[in-house]
Amino acid sequence: MIIFGRRIPMIFALLIWLLVWEAIGRAELLFLIPPFADVVRAMFKLLATGKFYQAVSVSFIAFSTGMMISISIGIPLGILMGRVRFIDELLGMWVNVFVSAPLTAIVPALMVLTGFGQTTVIVTVILFSVWIITLDTRAGVRNINPSLLEMGRSFGANKLQLYTKVIFKAALPEILAGLRLGLIRGVRGVIVGQLLIAIIGLGELFELYSRSFLMDRFWALVIMIFLFAYMISEAVNHLEKRIEFWASTR
Amino acid sequence: MQANTIQNRPIIEVKELSKTYPGRVEALRNVNLSIPRGQLTTLLGPSGCGKTTLLKIIAGLLNKTEGNVFINGQPVNGPGPERAFVFQDFALLPWCTVLRNVAFGLELRGVPGKQRNEIAMKYIDEVGLTGFEKAYPYELSGGMRQRVGLARALAVDAEILLMDEPFASVDEQTRRKFQEDLLNLLKIEKKTVVFVTHSIEEAVYVSDQVALLGPRPGRIMRVINTRLDHAENVEDIRRDQRYLNLVEDLWQILRQYLI
Ligand SMILES: Nc1ncnc2c1ncn2[C@@H]1O[C@H](COP(=O)(O)OP(=O)(O)O)[C@@H](O)[C@H]1O
Ligand SMILES: [Mg+2]
Question: Which helix (H) or strand (E) holds B161?
């Protein structure tokens, strides 16, 4: 950010917005927005309750299980779509539809198949995250310089070696980009799944706080989930930066 | 006597080879060519005449439409350990160091780590990259990257090197140095080389014989012996009257085919 020709660190922008928030809260303009200081206090209160940890652990299990399934389906599927014309033509349409579809609308229908519990939440996480991972992986495989593949073949790589030692690694920059987006969508998937059907975990807390107008806790929860999503996305971003040079010389 | 006949037999024989790409692009028509063992044969012709296509069919990387290619009397149907390829765009693995890139062919063959690194180091030295074994491709200039590509091809100890315009993406000075180094290197490493270029000077400079390809569909027009005595100092070749005459002769032949 640049003000009066001086570089101001981003953190100042954040500070300004927090001050605005605090002012609106103090002025009691909207009951939806309590003072930020109250939100921080609520955050510490939450961190001291057992119910919170229970909710976090239920949600985290759903998230990580869903993501693990998403990744182990999405990456191989993306590689196959990038390599095999027939599979690409068969599935390409569906993946493209689902990647931008308003999935939230479908979630209640899942209930019929998977019930009201944790399974539905896991399925929602997968449904939210798998498509972007697949598409980005496919794009990465498509971007591979053909002479890299010829090089592998001419030096005697068998199919497995070609996939593990050349294709997967050459596509890794895009795979990681897909993973980062997939993880963020996965976080959204947990919350949507828990809110819409299975009223468990963090979704249950959200329900509870908004129904009883405990807006400070509500916002505390929002901020913590946001921080969590931000942190995992930064972690993947860090990996992406480390392998950035691959993409340029591929 | 027996050994002698094997030695005299062309190591690569291309017989009535044709290639038509999907979409009816006829890239090669009825190509016949014998490539003698232990020599450097250049495929010379204008861009788009099918040089790369011919080289990749010899490499087993592309399917032919008709005809055959024989290596040591055996028909080609895929890549093989007796052939190594040097790519125009280097085709290095960007996530691997120079050492690992040079050793890549050996890694694919399952040569144990210590052994393949020793072999790779030898060739890194030979191509003049000593001290760069831990560098990544993005840290190297184009010329150095191609030296890595060459070292990788040498490391697998193939009889035949197939080089597709290896110096085309390298600047002029680097290219000249590289051409000299290649000739010196080939004095140590006894290889059969098939070398593709569109530069007449480069063809005459490096080759024992030049096969002239005409414009699409590619055919072999003439095969011309351009052997200069490479035992002499490679730096003197460019001043050699025979070199200059050959360049002029080739140009006179090639210009007939240009409209
Ligand atoms: N994959 C391909 N599909 C269709 N046409 C191709 C393909 N590759 C090359 N060609 C065509 O075949 C001809 C010969 O190409 P190439 O062998 O690359 O020529 P050169 O290496 O001599 O420049 C060119 O006209 C080119 O456009
Ligand atoms: Mg070419």
Answer: strand B160-164
Q: Is B142 in the pocket of ligand 1 (CB under 6 A)?
A: no
Q: How far is CA A181 from CA A174, A232, B117, B254, in A?
A: 11, 10, 39, 56
User: Residue B209 burial by CB count (10 A; 0-12/13-18/19+): exposed, middle or buried?
Assistant: middle
B111 secondary structure, DSSP code: -
3-class SS at B85?
A: strand
Q: What is the pTM of this model?
A: 0.88
The reply to whether ligand 1 has any atom less than 6 angstroms from the CB of B197 is no
CA nearest to B140 within chain A: A249
Nearest to A228 by CA among A193, A185, A178, A184: A184
Nearest CA in chain A to B164: A147
- For A14-32, write each residue's pLDDT tens digit: 888 889 888 888 888 777 8
Interface confidence, given as ipTM, is 0.91
Full set of structural domains in chain A with CATH = 1-33 (no CATH), 34-248 (1.10.3720.10)
The ligand 1 atom nearest the CA atom of B164: 21
Residue B108 corresponds to which amino acid? L
- Report residue A167 CA to chain centroid gap: 25
The amino acid at residue B77 is N
Pocket flag, ligand 1, residue B10 (CB < 6 Å): no
Contact between residue B182 and residue B203 where contact means Cβ atoms under 8 Å apart: no
Q: What is the pLDDT of residues B165-186, one digit of tens each?
A: 999 888 888 888 889 889 888 8
